[in-house]
Amino acid sequence: MKDRPASRPEGSRLHQSAGSPSSFHSTFDESTQLVEGAARQGRVWRQRPPVLIVGAHRSGTTATARALELLGLQIGQHLDSHRESRPLQKLHEDYLQRVGAAWYNPQPFLKWIGTAEGKQDCSSYLRTNVRRGFARIFGYRRNPKGLWLRVRLNFSARWGWKEPRTTLFAPAWLEIFPEARIVHVVRDAEAAASSIRERELKFQAAGDPPTPNLADLNYCTQLVQTYLAAGEQLADSPNYQRLQFEELQANPPAMLEQLGNFCDLRVARRDLSAAAASIRPARVRSTFS
């Protein structure tokens, strides 16, 4: 299966095997019930606020998420090749379809969430689903390592997620996590739009049905600008950080140290070196968003 957005799923390879501390095996079932029971009762909200990695598709969000993982940000376990949870993609896309929208046609949703009724309805939808299935939605497996990672959340582990549709849904997510930190990844709009179009043409050449309008470069540019505007509406938050992806490519160590501090990560020099090495220079083309 090829990498593409959730309507045609992004990524086919699952990363991070399910190895885990051996001490969890004997108490796995009992501890799982305790963790999931706490989530159903709403105690999940006592965790530290998440880091939301937002930005348009093909804007460098995947590279940024991978680097932050290396710096210690926990963004899930059962993820696709773009470091995204498939259930989270589906959660977003199902609601978009409910209001006649899609990731590539967000305007109907933006009009809806711009109303008090729409924002309340969307927030309720997200809150209800997350309380019912926190682990599944955010990419944690039902195994000892998944349990261990979830337990870490209750001991102040810094966590978050990356999924481009979060850019659109951020006002609703902030109703649930008002102190969430927002990393807004921005790439040159023309470059991002060209990448969206190029990927779409490759998918069509491979036999996939076309996604409406994505073969049109002008439309792709407008789409990127729509996501950019949605992200910039979050700039008034005291917990907002804009990251120009080209600047990250030009100076990974300095930019990642700054980003790690913003995310309240304890950045070790060894981890910073590994994270910086994961960022490809601007002259190297990437297949990731």
Return the domain count.
1
CATH class: Alpha Beta
Low-confidence stretches: 7-31
CATH topology: Rossmann fold
CATH architecture: 3-Layer(aba) Sandwich
Gross morphology: globular
Helix content: 40-55%
Distance N terminus to C terminus?
Answer: 17 Å
How many strand segments? 4
Strand order in the sheet with the most strands:
2-1-3-4
What is the gist of this entry?
Helix content is 50%, strand content 6%. It is an alpha/beta fold and 289 residues long.
Topology readout:
Blueprint: H1 28-40, E1 51-54, H2 61-70, H3 86-98, H4 107-113, H5 116-137, H6 144-153, E2 160-162, H7 166-176, E3 181-186, H8 189-205, H9 217-232, E4 240-244, H10 245-250, H11 252-262, H12 269-277
Parallel strand pairs: 1-2, 1-3, 3-4
Care to describe what's here?
- The protein is an alpha/beta fold.
- It has one domain: P-loop containing nucleotide triphosphate hydrolases (Rossmann fold, 3-Layer(aba) Sandwich), CATH 3.40.50.
- The chain is 50% helix and 6% strand.
- The protein has 12 helices and 4 strands; from the N terminus they run H-E-H-H-H-H-H-E-H-E-H-H-E-H-H-H.
- The chain has helices at residues 28-40, 61-70, 86-98, 107-113, 116-137, 144-153, 166-176, 189-205, 217-232, 245-250, 252-262, 269-277, and strands at residues 51-54, 160-162, 181-186, 240-244.
- Strands 2-1-3-4 form a 4-stranded parallel sheet, with helices on both faces.
- Helix 1 (28-40) packs across helix 6, helix 2 (61-70) packs antiparallel against helix 12 (269-277) and helix 5 crosses helix 7 (166-176).
- The two termini are 17 Å apart.
- The model is unreliable at 7-31 (pLDDT under 50).
